[in-house]
Every structure is written in C-alpha cells, then in structure tokens.
Amino acid sequence: QLQLVESGGGLVQPGGSLRLSCAASRFTLNAAVIGWFRQAPGKEREGVSYISSSGSTTNYAGSVKGRFTISRDNAKNTVYLQMNSLKPEDTAVYYCAANVIGALSLRGSFYNYWGQGTQVTVSS
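Now predict its structure.
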C-alpha cells in the first residue's frame, strides 16, 4: 500500500516561510504527478500546486503563485512545497497526494493516494 507522509508544518508569523515535505514509502514518487492541497476550517479543499512525474511541469493556484514553489528530489523520494511570504489566509491543513494516471490537474478527484496532512498556522 502506497503511503505518503507530510511534515514541516507549524506556526509561523505573517511574512514568514515554511517548507513542507511529502515522503513516500512503497512507491517511487517520480512515477506520479504529485499535488499539494489544503483545507481550512469551514472551507472546501483547494488545490495548491502540482509537479509532473518528470518535474518539468509545475502549476500553482492563483492565490499562491509567486510565493510557493514545488520541487522534487528523486534521490530522496520526496516532494517539497516551499512557502514564502505566508499570510493568515494560508492557514490550513496541507495534504500531498499522488496521481498515478498522470493527469496534470489541481482537481483532487484525479488523485488516488493521500497523506494524513500537516497543519500550517500563520498568525502573529
């Protein structure tokens, strides 16, 4: 069974940075499109970013474009989400997910496997 584990969340002040990690077991991450999603209390899940299996294609939600960067380290079988200039509205549980059919999409319905999530809180 493929497992994804997120880490790196925490409490940060507005304007600060965090780097989230998504590590996989029993699966090679570069065989799938990997996406980051988030869900704030009382809100629907939102697609934040994805990276293609080759790493050559990335995409971002408009709300994070220019502030967040997705990357992958195939040697470590890990995908990262570098989050800079964080805002209170970025507060949410962040999830990574794997899309083994290769669809380049921020729609969660394309993603087959999900991690348990990591909390990000942006507050002064």
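The two ends are 40 Å apart (CA to CA).
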